[in-house]
Amino acid sequence: MEAQKLLWIATEPPRFGEECSTLSITYGIEWLPPETALEVLRRQDFGAIILSFPAIGWAPCELLEAVQRLAPSIPVLIRDPHASVFDAVRLARLGVYQFLASGDEAAAQIEEAIEERRTHDLARLAEQVGHEEWERLLIGDSREMRQVGHIIRLVGGRRSTVLITGETGTGKELAARALHLAGARRRAPWVAVNCSALPEHLLEAELFGHVRGAFTGAIQNRVGRFEEAQGGTLFLDEIGDLPLDLQAKLLRVLQEREFQRLGSSETIRLDVRVVAATNCDLGERIEQGKFREDLYYRLNVVPLHMPPLRERREDIAVIAPFLVEKICKLEGIAPKVLSSEAVERLSGYSWPGNVRQLENYIAMAVALSGDRNTLAPADFALPAPARYRMGTVDPPVISVPDQGMDYERTLALIERSILEQALRKTGGNKKAAAEMLCLKRTTLAAKVRSLESAMT
Length: 456
Description:
The protein is an alpha/beta fold. The chain folds into four domains: 121 residues, 3-Layer(aba) Sandwich (Rossmann fold); 174 residues, Rossmann fold; 79 residues, Helicase, Ruva Protein, domain 3 (Orthogonal Bundle), CATH 1.10.8; 49 residues, Orthogonal Bundle (Arc Repressor Mutant, subunit A). It is built from 19 helices and 14 strands. The protein has a five-stranded parallel β-sheet with strand order 2-1-3-4-5. The chain has a five-stranded parallel β-sheet with strand order 7-8-11-6-12. Helix 1 links the parallel strand 1 and strand 2. Helix 14 crosses helix 16.
């Protein structure tokens, strides 16, 4: 945990009034005269430093330089009611974080300075520990997975709330764990809650905890998941299933960074990074009145989409051998390998259940392969892909004439016919046509352009 206590350097005890009373309780403010403060800075860390002027025996520039020499990474704020604009500009050039205002603005400035220090420390620690551990959670070298890794690398060390979207089985929880491991919070608690797995009447107590006697059956105090995750990451899976009344309470927690246990009036300050995930369309749930729009924007600070396996089939050649090795270790059996033909078959399937479905089929193949150490295509009894699509399609009957045929042109004609039919059925809507053919919209558009140029 980073130091958060404030050091207030002044020749007389500061009268900082009500504007800083909350911060004084939350962080603690230690007042020291300049000479004593400089000695303490040699052996103690602080979240931020406030210099009050005039200070007897010290010019502002001299005291600032002495403080920065001992604590170069700690943000320094100045309180000087007699400072001129020239003084403010001169000290700002020397590295002063801000001039402290009065009233409520002062508390906000101090909080911002502490957060700035915390962000700096997180980034520095993330560079020191490297990214090897979290990168091992993300398997695949497709463009889509490289984009996922890029986002995690950028925001892993930040406090920003992240909303992970994607179909069931795409690895949303693995991405959340990678976010946790990519920054300094990697050594702090990781707490996961499935919002759809608990009854509504228990979920609030599960998240926020309760005190004895808060409700029937509350025979002792209990710490909630938010409190368990202090300093670390709280993962809220299936956030779309959170009841509306709890959505309002979660929104307040995210805004105020504080909460109360059920049945208690004690306010608990939070230092928790929240990562949420859902496999449903939250936009549709907002339209249906089942999800708060303001909570959606509070959660969706950094969006992270996990692509389905059918959109990154090139990764199957990497994922499948990894899963075979993992399952063999779990079963305590000799390692097995996939034949190239088996990999080809797995790569040709659409995997509507994504990586989770792939893992289940590999587990079945490992179990049924007996003592053989090589898994063949016959070990994977995959359903016909058409069963997972709009309908079954009989293969076209094409006769090869004795004089031969132009293979590439014939395939192009068949492909063009399929694309034209899909576009005709959807009224020219390329997005709908792509969904009908289980293609990405960009892939369909590229195929149309390619065929148009080839047939001219």
